[in-house]
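Each lists chain and fold; for instance:
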Amino acid sequence: MSDDLGLIIGSGLAALGPRIVASETVETRFGAPSSPVMTVEIENHRVACIARHGSAHSIAPHEVNYRANVWALHEAGVRRLIAVNVVGAIGAGFAPGDLAVPDQLIDYTSGRESTYGGDDFESLHVEFTEPFDPVLRGQIAVAAVACGHSIRRGVYAVMQGPRLETAAEIDRLERDGCTMVGMTAMPEAVLARELGVDYALLAVAVNYAAGRSPGAAPIHGQIRKSMADGMARVTQLLARLVPELLRGTS
């Protein structure tokens, strides 16, 4: 595989359809990851990848073994990790199909295994002021603009799921300063930080958050309509970004 770059792909895996050239089933000390560690080919570069919700998309956000996923990629040599997540758009002017690279998050989840500390690991109090690596975030944003796409920044609200939110809950998230809502950035981001892996998130808005749609279209209809277009933009972005990140390392 190429250098130290890896991917975790969430609900958009089927629409993204990466070319898988190898697949290895692994077991970690934290159990099995969501999927085999796949080797995907992007513009002649081979990159390690895990499907966050499993190969059949059968693992709910609160059931994902985040520790095993990040650990397995780290064991495969990944030191820079890009997560592809779908989100609901909260902020004004943020619409389904748009791309975002969040710079902050607020964690509203509970009960998830969120650290490698304990057992024979020392307790870890990682510095988490900036939960997403600023260099990797900037590189994703530059690639998006070079592809002709606008790119949003903002705060990612991490909800427990698996249900979607009420309109009142989205009102609260907006008051808290959140511009997008999803279910999977945590504990993924902090686990990467504990292992010294640079982590950034490429978010694809596939629906308006509850109570934010300007029309009457139901949320699941928005998702079906927006997923293909949004993932086509991600495919184009990755085709430009991956060679740039790996230039001179293959």
Remarks:
- DSSP finds six helices and eleven strands in the chain.
- The chain has a mean pLDDT of 91.
- The longest helix spans residues 219-246.
